[in-house]
Specification:
352 residues, 23% strand, binds zinc ion, alpha+beta, single chain, four-stranded mixed sheet, nine-stranded antiparallel sheet
């Protein structure tokens, strides 16, 4: 089975052309973290990590994106490290207890936008009562349980989000920068335990992450006369971390923002909705309980172009009170990752 710990080896074996493209975008650094285990700890270390040697010489693989400065540190041992935190009580019970809340009655117990509600067969929009930005809507799912959704559900949610964007833009044409997000449950910062997505429309310029990606991609294209998003896909494909299906380019990202990041590059929201559903299905089967999805969209007046880029990330177990990001992610900008992108890729590919 392939592993991120062998990434350098895979790159070495590429054709010159593929290797050059890989090295243009990525730098891979292998390192070893050494330590000594006292004999009193050995038995515990073996039961926890399998061997003393693997712990005393830990392989660390660092991947840096030379274009965007995204950076990730992979060490598989971290996935097995002890977590000393309080455990929440039964989360399914918690979700059930919230049945009958405001989002179960969206027409009477959620605000509506000045341009009204958009209604789908499986969802309805509302206006976020405490807004991130001036135009901030909700797609409230009919299904209460945030972890229960079908393909037709996801298609409906995204269709309604897109309709909301069109309606909002028509009424407020200066708000031309759309962004769709799906925060699933509290580890992903959702404050309401009822399934919902959110949509925002920015004015003046796009949100920071999307604007910076645009600038990096523009600079890349000027220097190398090649499309950055095409090349990101090619590089991931060359090392066995991407495939294409129904005009969707699906990849497990080499510099993930956090655990199990998947990226779907597509031509439209409609076109990527099935791929998003399939990736989520794989997530649920891998035991993911809380996730974020962010969908990057180009400005509605087409003043610049970017493919539709959906990013998905696992935010960890609901019963684990430790937050998944700390000083490395928040300030150093190098994300510490326990999940192996190759394992995620193999599982996701089975769903397609
Ligand atoms: Zn509900």
């Amino acid at each position: 089975m392939n592993s991120i710990l062998s990434l350098s080896k895979y790159v070495m074996n590429l054709s010159k052309k593929d290797k050059d493209l890989f090295s243009r975008i990525y730098t891979v650094t292998e390192d070893v973290g050494a330590l000594k285990i006292p004999k009193e700890m050995k038995e515990w270390v073996i039961s926890r990590f399998g061997s003393v040697r693997a712990v005393e010489n830990q392989k660390i693989v660092r991947v840096d994106n030379n274009v965007t400065c995204e950076s990730a540190l992979f060490n598989e041992l971290r996935a097995m490290r002890p977590i000393e935190a309080n455990k929440n009580e039964n989360t399914q019970k918690f979700i059930k207890e919230k049945i009958g809340g405001d989002f179960c009655n969206p027409n009477t117990r959620t605000a509506e936008d000045t341009f009204g509600r958009v209604k789908g067969s499986r969802s309805v929009t509302g206006s976020n009562i405490a807004k991130y930005d001036a135009l901030h809507g909700l797609v409230i799912f009919k299904e209460h349980n945030p972890l229960k959704f079908s393909l037709s559900d996801v298609k409906d949610y995204l269709k309604i989000a897109e309709k909301w964007i069109k309606k909002g833009y028509k009424k407020y044409p200066e708000r031309k920068y759309p962004y769709i997000m799906w925060n699933c449950l509290w580890k992903a910062a959702a404050s309401i335990a009822h399934g919902h997505m959110q949509i925002v429309l920015a004015k003046n310029r796009h949100y920071g992450g999307i604007e910076s990606l645009r600038r990096f991609a523009e600079g890349y294209s000027k220097v190398f006369k090649s499309d950055y998003h095409d090349d990101i896909y090619r590089v991931h494909k060359s090392v066995g971390l991407a495939f294409e299906k129904k005009n969707n380019r699906v990849l497990t990202y080499l510099t993930p923002v956090k655990e199990k990041e998947m990226i779907i590059i597509s031509k439209s929201i409609k076109n990527c909705s099935e791929a998003i559903y399939r990736a989520l299905k794989a997530y649920l089967e891998m035991g993911v309980e809380s996730f974020n999805i962010g969908i990057y969209l180009q400005p509605l007046d087409n003043s610049w172009n970017m493919p539709v880029i959906a990013r998905l990330v696992d935010r960890g177990s609901l019963s684990n009170n430790t937050v998944d990001i700390g000083g490395m992610e928040i300030f150093a900008g190098s994300n510490v990752i326990a999940s192996d992108p190759y394992k995620v890729f193999d599982r996701v590919k089975e769903e397609f």
